[in-house]
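Researcher: Can you fold this with 2-phosphoglycolic acid in place?
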Amino acid sequence: MEAERTPLIAGNWKMYKTVSEAVKTAEALVNQIADVTGVDVMIAPPFTALASVAAVLKDSTVALGAQNLHWESEGAFTGEISAVMLLSTGCTHVIIGHSERRQYFGETDETVNQRIRTALQNRLVPVMCIGESEAERDAGETFNVLDKQLQKGLKGFVSDDLTPLVVAYEPVWAIGTGKTATTEQAQEAHKFIRLQVEKKFGNKLANSTRILYGGSVKPGNIDELMTMPDVDGALVGGASLDASVFSQIVGYRK
Ligand code: PGA
């Protein structure tokens, strides 16, 4: 099921970079990818650097994303950040349900669902992360896990609510480990995800949903990953921290 989907290469900076480091990296990135066409680019710096990085990205095509948001619009939620606050910095995208949030900070499919709802209501593009652990893969549970995360995370929505939707398939065992899923494993999972979206929401949404692969993406493996029909881009962690390395990924061989 191949369709016209503009690839999206997204950088997740996690808990790295001070404001000045983030600004420098963003400036270098904007310069280095100035000539790249046909691919959407997004970077998600830490909250503290969003406003400053937004100023750097202002006249570029690089989109700004956050790494999380809270579902309430405001309130006594110490340490949390709202959609309106993200919008006020210039964010257009938000990563939701990253496996590190699920693993260390109590994120569940239910809270993922709430965050996606709030993101969409505020016209922030949700980048919904799903993926199986190594034990789940070894137990042959990969598809069940992906199905459950999709069903619960997208519960209560109809197709129109979810435009635009980005899903990031990130096998937990491949994140930051140097182990990458084979292109075949990635394609198999992406195809399955698209099929589930189609079953639940129909062909139109399934065809327009961009499914990114994440987990040790590097300049050396992006070309092959991007040849797969259901791989519509990448969510890049470690290799997005250096502008020249990330630029190589953005400029992958098409
Ligand atoms: P990695 O991280 O590229 O460092 O494996 C990917 C991610 O966590 O989004």
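Model: Folded with 2-phosphoglycolic acid in place. The mean pLDDT is 96.
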